[in-house]
Automatic annotation (TrEMBL):
Cofactor(s) annotated in UniProt: FAD
Protein known as: Methylenetetrahydrofolate reductase
Pathway the protein acts in: One-carbon metabolism; tetrahydrofolate interconversion; Amino-acid biosynthesis; L-methionine biosynthesis via de novo pathway
Species assigned in the record: Pokkaliibacter plantistimulans
Keywords attached to this entry: Amino-acid biosynthesis, FAD, Flavoprotein, Methionine biosynthesis, NAD, Oxidoreductase
EC number: 1.5.1.54
Family designation: Belongs to the methylenetetrahydrofolate reductase family.
Highest rank taxon of the organism: Bacteria
NCBIfam families (UniProt xref): fadh2
Keyword Amino-acid biosynthesis: yes
Taxonomic lineage from the root: Bacteria, Pseudomonadati, Pseudomonadota, Gammaproteobacteria, Oceanospirillales
């Protein structure tokens, strides 16, 4: 089997400290030559104050690797998003992670009247702007708004049929959850590649709260592993590294050759994973 490859996800920083942390991470991680680095957009999307575009453009110059910009339906009107897409294309950013997003401060999602309602509409519109490489999101344990996995796969197929060629998943811990999902995606006739999204556990307590919001299950053995281990302990990092290497090894034996790492703008753990992926296989 060929050597596995990976992409990295970063988010636009909001403070001076997180700006420094992002640039430190990108300097340390770029030498591992990720396939691409993706830059998320905040809940408010690409609205004024959001620096996704700025960060994506600087990252493209500094990291010497392709950059993908995230775009969400909630963040602008149709025309605003299409203009942003044209700007990206002209700036040589040819990969978009196309998402619906969530309405800031609202429990229930209501599409904006002047916008794209769901990610499949955004994908189709982007494809009309130019021949972007398009990634979309997938949810191995179901999206919180979803009524059933069958319905969700139906909508996922719409995204693929509209032109998405890669499905990056929400984070998960049990590799079998991903493998079952990949089978269901294939059985639904979806040809796009399914890429596991892997989250380094930088802080177990914070991660469990986030996982609950995302509908990601945290296996019991992880609770036992991290019991009494504080985030700043070296043991915490070693355990986190262990989880990632187990996930990657297991998935690789099942033919998974591409991994998307959520860096959380922190290079320490991701750097070890990159080094390990590059040397172990
Ligand atoms: P969709 O694919 O549009 O689906 C959302 C829900 O609506 C699902 O329940 C689906 O079943 C349902 N649905 C889909 N189409 C239809 C339809 N036509 N009719 C009725 N129901 C439908 N959020 C950000 O704000 N910024 C980011 O940068 C960001 N990056 C992400 C990257 C990844 C890899 C992932 C997994 C998520 C990311 N998110 C981001 C979170 C994402 O925006 C939320 O999870 C959001 O709630 C759903 O977006 P989506 O693109 O998956 O939506």
């Amino acid at each position: 089997m060929s050597k596995p490859n990976f992409s990295l996800e970063v988010f636009p920083p909001k403070t001076a400290a997180t700006t420094l942390s992002l640039w430190k991470a990108s300097q340390e991680l770029a030498p591992f030559k990720p396939e691409f680095i993706s830059v998320t957009c905040g809940a408010g999307g690409n609205a004024p104050g959001d620096t996704t575009k700025e960060v994506a453009l600087v990252m493209a110059q500094q990291a010497h690797c392709p950059v993908a910009a995230h775009m969400t339906c909630v963040s602008g009107s149709r025309e605003e998003l299409l203009q942003l897409a044209r700007d990206y294309w002209q700036s040589n950013i040819r990969h978009i992670v196309a998402l619906r997003g969530d309405m800031p401060g609202q429990e229930r999602y209501t599409p904006r009247a002047d916008g794209f309602a769901y990610a499949d509409e955004l994908v189709a519109a982007l494809k009309e702007v130019a021949d972007f490489d398009i990634s979309v999101a997938g949810y191995p344990e179901g999206h919180p708004d979803s009524s059933s996995m069958d319905k969700e796969l139906e909508y996922l197929k719409k995204k693929a049929d509209a032109g998405a060629n890669r499905i990056i998943t929400q984070f998960f811990f049990d590799p079998e959850v991903f493998l079952r999902y990949r089978d269901r995606v294939a059985a639904a006739g979806i040809k796009a590649e399914v890429v596991p999204g892997l989250l380094p556990v930088l802080n177990f307590k914070k991660m469990t709260a986030f996982a609950a919001r995302c509908q990601t299950s945290v296996p019991e053995f992880l609770h036992k592993m991290f019991e009494g281990v504080e985030a700043e302990d070296i043991d915490h990092r070693l355990l986190a590294m262990n989880i990632l290497s187990h996930q990657i090894t297991r998935l690789h034996t099942e033919g998974v050759n591409f991994f998307h790492l959520y860096t959380l703008n922190e290079s320490m753990l991701t750097r070890h994973v990159c080094r390990w992926i590059r040397s172990a296989f």
